[in-house]
């Protein structure tokens, strides 16, 4: 689609609360833009009760971990490979890998997430300068609910907190092209099939990464097959898919396409995904090895058409465009500030580092104001709104969708302010 002239952005804001129990994920909610011309901005707190505190009590959230382990696993159509790459590099290539950021993993007495009780989030999704809205956003609190030991990657194994029931929260951004049908379908379906595939996995604690990798790979493949089998859209329609599952101890990211997720940790902005671009060295080799071509037509494109090398849908470009995700595992830390999950409408005009710096600055300022006035806009929502507006002002020509997940608990913020 061609960009259109600048038009006024009409903000339709809605603020809701999603209640979540520790044993039932039935309170899960799905949000995506129905009106292709609307601007949507929403903020939510994940809570274990009907109160308005917006905190997840200790019995609900699995904890986070100080160790800083980032693992990127590339799942190919025939094999699974793991190599070592620097996690702090920009999104520009690499086959995936394992990176230790700050030393070795330390076993703790409790999961970090037990202290990080509050998980709040906000999102903004606007049509921007496009003629149609093709992005979709999904947020599913507690899409899987198990003990931290069962989920995998617990850094306090055998502790009291590791055996408590805890939810895993799901955040997804889907950037459609050629139409909105596949993106909307993904927003409605991918979390369900991933959860189903995860439930089918083994129970070997030592194989928890493999279980998640398989769940995401099979889930994305199932969604892709259903798009064709259910005639969801013509073969020329497709969508990216970047999803993040947040447990008490792990941040698990699955990416297919050129949407992106980053983690703000302390003063660092850590990319959790690597864009699937046709001129990425390994992707170019895969495409050309299969008889395809990458043509530079307003940027590198598969056969001069599609500016990404992986997606859901796009059957007319098989086998060169594949629905195979890359999965990363990041051990949570007490220094984690927030997650930013967004479509390329943001990343085309704002770098990882710039987005991280803006988020950190605004989060800290808004947290202080929120503590003084609990009726004010949640910090995560303020950041999502600001990043979306900033991308638009920087002349982004695409739809812009941003989810921000605040990983700092209210209690920890209060402790910091009282000692500040």
Structure description:
- The protein has 420 residues and is of the alpha+beta class.
- It has a domain at 109-273 and 325-406: 4-Layer Sandwich (Phosphatase 2c, domain 1), CATH 3.60.40.10.
- 26% of the residues lie in helices and 27% in strands.
- It is built from nine helices and 20 strands.
- Strands 4, 5, 6, 8, 9, 10, 11, 12, 17 and 18 form a ten-stranded antiparallel sheet that branches. Strands 1, 2, 3, 7, 13, 14, 19 and 20 form an eight-stranded mixed sheet that branches. A two-stranded antiparallel ribbon has the order 15-16.
- 56% of the residues are buried.
How would you briefly describe this protein structure?
Keywords: Hydrolase, Magnesium, Manganese, Metal-binding, Protein phosphatase. The protein contains nine helices and 20 strands. The model is unreliable at about 1-30, about 30-40 and about 45-105 (pLDDT under 50).
Helix content: 25-40%
**Overall average residue pLDDT:** 77
The main sheet comes to: 10 strands, antiparallel
Overall shape: globular
Distance between the termini: 51 Å
Tell me the Rg in angstroms.
20 Å
Cofactor: Mn(2+); Mg(2+)
Biased composition (Low complexity): 19-51
Pfam families: PP2C (PF00481)
Enzyme class: hydrolase
């Amino acid at each position: 689609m061609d960009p259109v002239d600048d038009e006024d952005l009409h903000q339709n804001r809605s603020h809701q609360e999603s209640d979540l129990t520790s044993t039932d994920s039935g309170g899960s909610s799905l949000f995506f833009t129905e009106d292709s011309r609307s601007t949507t901005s929403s903020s939510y707190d994940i809570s274990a009760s009907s109160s308005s505190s917006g905190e997840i009590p200790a019995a609900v959230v699995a904890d986070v971990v100080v160790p800083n382990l980032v693992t990127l696993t590339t799942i190919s159509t025939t094999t699974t490979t793991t190599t070592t790459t620097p996690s702090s590099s920009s999104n520009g290539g690499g086959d995936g890998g394992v990176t230790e950021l700050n030393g070795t993993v330390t076993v703790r007495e409790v999961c970090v997430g037990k202290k990080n009780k509050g998980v709040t989030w906000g999102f903004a999704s606007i049509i921007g300068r496009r003629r149609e809205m093709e992005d979709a956003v999904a947020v599913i609190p507690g899409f899987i609910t198990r003990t931290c030991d069962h989920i995998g990657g617990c850094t306090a194994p055998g502790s009291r907190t590791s055996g408590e029931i805890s939810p895993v929260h799901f955040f997804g951004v889907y950037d459609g092209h050629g139409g909105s049908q596949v993106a909307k379908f993904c927003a409605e379906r991918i979390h369900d099939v991933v959860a189903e595939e995860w439930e089918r996995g083994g129970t070997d604690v030592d194989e928890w990464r493999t279980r998640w990798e398989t769940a995401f790979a099979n889930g994305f493949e199932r969604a892709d097959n259903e798009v064709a089998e259910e005639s969801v859209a013509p073969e020329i329609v497709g969508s990216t898919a970047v999803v993040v599952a947040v447990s008490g101890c792990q941040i698990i990211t699955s990416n297919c396409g050129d949407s992106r997720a980053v983690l703000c940790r302390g003063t660092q902005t850590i990319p959790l995904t690597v864009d699937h671009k046709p001129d990425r060295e390994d992707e170019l080799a895969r495409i050309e090895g299969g008889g395809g071509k990458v043509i530079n037509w307003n940027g590198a494109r598969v056969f001069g058409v599609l500016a990404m090398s992986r997606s859901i849908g796009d059957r007319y470009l098989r086998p060169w465009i594949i629905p195979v995700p890359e999965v990363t595992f990041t051990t949570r830390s007490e220094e984690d500030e927030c997650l930013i999950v967004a479509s390329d409408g943001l990343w085309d005009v704002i770098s990882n580092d710039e987005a991280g710096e803006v988020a950190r600055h605004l989060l800290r300022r808004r947290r202080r104001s929120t503590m003084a006035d609990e009726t004010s806009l949640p910090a995560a929502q303020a950041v999502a709104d600001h990043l979306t507006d900033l991308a638009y002002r920087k002349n982004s020509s695409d739809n812009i969708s941003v989810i921000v997940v605040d990983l700092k608990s209210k209690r920890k913020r209060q402790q910091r302010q009282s000692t500040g």
